[in-house]
Amino acid sequence: MEMNSALAAVSSGDALKQAVGIALLSKVQDTQAAQTAVLLQDFTAAQHPNLGKTLDIRI
User: Fold this and answer.
1) What is d(CA 59, CA 23) in angstroms, rounded to the nearest whole number?
2) 9-57 confidence digits (pLDDT tens)
């Protein structure tokens, strides 16, 4: 009987850890997506108007 109680306590703790881990992973993914969007907007805003129009090659 004591063994079943111990196993139940351990498994419920594992379920809590898993739930917290999943919630944390979801938050991190949301944060990363938001940061990526801001980074892409910054890249778009910072482009030089003549970028890619000419090549500077010396032979």
Assistant:
1) 57
2) 666 778 888 888 999 999 999 999 999 999 989 888 877 777 667 777 7
Distance CA 3, CA 10 (A): 11
DSSP output for 7-48: HHHHHHHHHHHHHHHHHHHHHHHHHHHHHHHHHHHHHHHT--
| pTM score of the predicted model | 0.55
Radius of gyration of the chain (CA): 26
Tokens of 5: 């109680």
Round to whole Å and give the CA distance between 28 and 22: 10
